[in-house]
Design goal:
5-stranded mixed sheet, 2 helices, single chain, TA_system_RelE_toxin, 88 residues
Length: 88
C-alpha cells in the first residue's frame, strides 16, 4: 500500500498550536503515521457523519477524513476529548 498525502485544515493547524507543548510531538507522530495506515487499529468512525474518523492520542482526539480515491487524509480537528465532537 502506498503513502497517503496528509492535508491539515487551517482550523486543525490552529488547534495544534494551542496544545500543551509536551503533547504536540505525540500528536504529530500519530498524524504522520496515518500516511501509511489511514485507518489504524483503534480508529473509529465518528457517529453521525459519513466520512470522519477519530484516533486517540492520550486525552486528545484527532478527527480526520479519508479519501481513498485521491489517496488523501484531511485533518479536520485536534482537540481535547471533552470538546472534540462539538460542531460536527
Amino acid at each position: 500500500m502506498g503513502l497517503y498525502e496528509i492535508l491539515v485544515k487551517a482550523g486543525a493547524e490552529k488547534d495544534i498550536t494551542r496544545l500543551p507543548y509536551d503533547v504536540v510531538p505525540r500528536i504529530l507522530k500519530k498524524i504522520e503515521a496515518l500516511s501509511e495506515t489511514p485507518i489504524p487499529h483503534g480508529a473509529r468512525k465518528v457517529s453521525g457523519t459519513e466520512s470522519l474518523y477519530r484516533i486517540r492520542a492520550g486525552d486528545y482526539r484527532i478527527i480526520y477524513e479519508v479519501s481513498h480515491e485521491r489517496r488523501q487524509i484531511t485533518i479536520v480537528y485536534v482537540r481535547h476529548r471533552h470538546s472534540a465532537y462539538r460542531r460536527l
